[in-house]
Amino acid sequence: MKNRIKDAFDDIRAEEQLKDRTREFLSAKMQSQMQKAQNIKARNQMETAQTIQARKRRQYGKWIAAAAGFCFMVMIFAGYQFYFSATAVISIDVNPSIELNINRFDTVISVKAYNEDGQDLAENLDVRFMKYGEAVQAIMDSDAFAGYRSEDDVVSVAVAGYDEKQQEKILTDMEFCAAAEKNMYCYYADGDEIAKAHEAGLSCGKYRAYLELQKLDPDVTVEEVREMTMREIRERIEELSSDPDDSSGSTAQEEGAGQRNGTGQRNGAGQRNGAGQKEGAGQSGKGHMHRRHKGAE
């Protein structure tokens, strides 16, 4: 470029001093323009770099925000699961059969009904998010619960769960509560019993009563027990436990003495005379056999 300018000036006829000044002016002008061009280029490069960095920062910020949001959601979900996970169950049975699910903070997180009366009771009471002691007391004091309970009705309270310390504490508190109530009984049930009870569609308390009744009446079914009140179940258990016919029948089957050998229960010698099955039954049996032989002769 400079050579072209020089060649152009060589063809011009003018004073050397004027040529020099003109040449310097044009050279300075060109340098200025070149400097501006370089500045613009540098500025563009800088802006481009800044733009790229800003874009990276924005993307990085988005990733950070997304990660933070994800962590926050995980924490909320974990906290929800932690709070709303039942670690213990309080089963209350009269005829209404309900269960209070208790979390690790001793708070009622849900109420589950196992029959129609239980559903009605659960709908008339709002004990969620109460401490379990307050919830049980509110149930016992409620008019809705009183409507299902008479003086002779038995209230069964079963405590079950997966945290042994919490179970012991709840059971102790329930026993203290039962001391102020009439015909209220508390007992412990384990985790397996909870699972089996729920599989049968029964509350823990009614399932325990069902097992007790089943020992005395093997033919009883879950469906029958589901429709019975706790009072009816208890009366049936007492009836079977104190039934003299069942007792004598069992003795006859175990001893095997009477009907086959002719030695006794039909003669009434053993049990009624109080002489014992060994002596009384033997004597009576001998007499009976002797009379039969004598008559035959």
TrEMBL record:
Residues 88-211 form the Anti-sigma factor RsgI-like middle domain. Keywords: Membrane, Transmembrane, Transmembrane helix. Residues 259-285 have a biased composition (Gly residues). Residues 287-297 have a biased composition (Basic residues). The keyword Secreted does not apply. The keyword Membrane applies. The chain crosses the membrane at residues 63-83. Residues 237-297 are annotated as: Disordered. InterPro entries: RsgI_M (IPR055431). This is Anti-sigma factor RsgI-like middle domain-containing protein.
